[in-house]
Amino acid sequence: MNPYIVAIFVPLIASLILWKSNNGKKRGLPVDVGGEPGYAVRSYRSISLAESSWEGVSTLAELFEQACKRFTYKRSLGTRKLITREMEVSQSGRSFEKLQLGDYEWVSYGEAFKAVCSFSSGLVHLGHKKDERVAIFSDTRAEWFIALQGCFRQNITVVTIYASLGEEALCHSLNETEVSTVICGHKELKKLIDISGQLDNVKRIIYIDEEGVSSEVSLAKKNTSWTITSFVEVETMGREKPIDAYLPLSADVAVIMYTSGSTGLPKGVMMTHGNVLATASAVMTIVPSIGTNDIYMAYLPLAHILELAAENVMVAAGVAIGYGSPLTLTDTSNKIKKGTKGDASVLRPTVMAAVPAILDRVRDGVRKKVDAKGGLSKKLFDAAYGRRLSAINGSWFGAWGFEKVLWDFLIFRQVRAVLGGRVRFLLSGGAPLYGDTQRFINICLGAPVVQGYGLTETCAGGTFSDYDDTSVGRVGAPVPCSYVKLIDWPEGGYLVTDSPMPRGEIVIGGPNVTPGYFKNEEKTKEVYKVDEKGMRWFYTGDIGRFHPDGCLEIIDRKKDIVKLQHGEYVSLGKVEAALIVSPYVDNIMVHADPFHSFCVALVVAAQHASEEWASKQGISYSDFSDLCQKEETVKKVHESLFLVAKQARLDKFEIPAKIKLIPETWTPEAGLVTAALKLKREVIRKAYADDLAKLYA
Description:
Blueprint (H helix, E strand, L loop, with lengths): L2 H21 L4 E3 L8 E5 L16 H11 L4 E15 L5 E14 H18 L6 E5 L4 H11 L5 E3 L6 H10 L2 E6 L1 H9 L9 E4 L5 H11 L3 E4 H10 L12 E6 L9 E5 H12 L10 E4 L6 H13 L2 E4 L19 H5 L3 E4 L1 H18 L1 H18 L8 H16 L8 E4 L6 H11 L3 E5 L9 E2 L12 E2 L4 E5 L15 E7 L6 E2 L3 H7 E3 L5 E11 L5 E6 L3 E3 L5 E3 H8 L5 E8 L6 E7 L1 H11 L6 H6 L1 H17 L10 E5 L18 H7 L1 H8 L1
Parallel strand pairs: 3-13, 5-6, 5-7, 6-10, 7-8, 8-9, 12-13, 12-14, 14-15, 15-16, 28-29
Antiparallel strand pairs: 1-2, 2-19, 3-4, 10-11, 11-21, 16-17, 17-18, 19-20, 20-23, 22-23, 23-24, 25-26, 27-28
């Protein structure tokens, strides 16, 4: 046979065989469990539930120490050097901070362990007692992780708080847990000074050394009675006078994690060392061939369980962790000075985690660039994307083998460069990822984009997609540390006897399920249950269905369902996920009222797309806020919502009858979305109460 024919057709046939075998693979298996009757599934990887994958390791402190001894001379934690910090003023007069950052500077695992031991000893010398709690109130960075592990070595429980948390929630978190020592950055120190009179138990502040912190330190020393010490000073104290470790047990509480709750004050979820270790052990069996050759991009909030669990997995595998931020992630990120490379371009990671909002922005950014170029470039991109999509969907005429390599080189290589060009595995969690976004990122990056499903209350453990699963819109089979069960929710019309797939409320059981909420026994009893076999279950409030291969799909949420005046049920989250695909939408909150027969929406308009449309239409306006108020703009955006709603097959009553365009982006700092960029519905509703009233008028 002609060798050229072999070279073309063998990869093609092999790929199709692989696709077919993956398509019929059983990824989750039914299992008999105790507790409330339902339809339960376990991982196909293991009959028993995973608790620890490492001999002699039962806590996160032991896991870190073992990793540092195994990978002593390997790169561990990396931070970019700050070269300059400047303020730029836009044409509208607004000021923006711009950073020029250098290369990554690394410490080895051995050096990281010494830093952790020194910080641990320094805490004791500073006067912190074992029965007191430490809060870490800072953006994600190497010092955050060192402080966490330092506390663990003295069996000190860490309270994690989002850096974006508002004053009321911050006071509540620190006072409820009776925190005596707070570790923070300079921005967070300013927030603490502002509420110092409302904090009942804080005695010590450890500030992370960085440019600009001196003014806040002087202010704190002048206006408070706190002991103010730098992170470096604490390390130095401990290094000069080491103190023996007082290691925790598996059942000891490692972290009290305050969620940036979408309603009301945040709740503190108590997580034991055993809880988080179970999730880390389970994930280690799923991520393909993870090891010391990998580099992880750390930029999500470490106060979120997704990032905290991920970094412990990376440490266990000896992966190099490079720290960055969402505002410096790419070359075009908001805080990156023009001409300076973003974190991903410098680090060139192989493994990343992301939340759907960030992946939506990457997708929108790529599409905007392609559309702006137009002409041949756009035609080539569309052709390449179409061929890859056909291949993934099982078409014999899609781009496989040599053609795939060609398209990757000509087209997608440029897209991959946005995240450094070497990402081989990307996990999306924290919220449902829209199927189109998942497929788009998967094709453009040429790497698996897998979804995970879990909650703070289950230490992020629940389900996890296999890297070879080519489907979208699902969150995978149960991880090896969890059983996932569906139970009937008759009020919503979801039953485990439904055909063609069982449906119901998702309940998660296993060693990763946490003890409950700190000082909130009533809420704990409401959503946590222990069955007759001693298994602990968490009732998520999410609605799912199991596919025949054992993979879960999230289809609804009990709290997001509103019954309209004529009896129709509207799932707010489902509708929002469908409508946010519009190129004119940056964010959206659908609102439904039981006393009306229609729903409405607050739409954060996408500035670039809206202004580009206005320019083509010859519409004049003074600023973006003015453009959003124009009747023509509202009509255009509303038309785009109808179009995507039709494509998503939404019912007429699910499509917002009226909309209000919002020119300002909803940010965690403004308190309108959580740190994971989920909508705070009640806060938004109150903030835009007048606008909503007008929409219903």
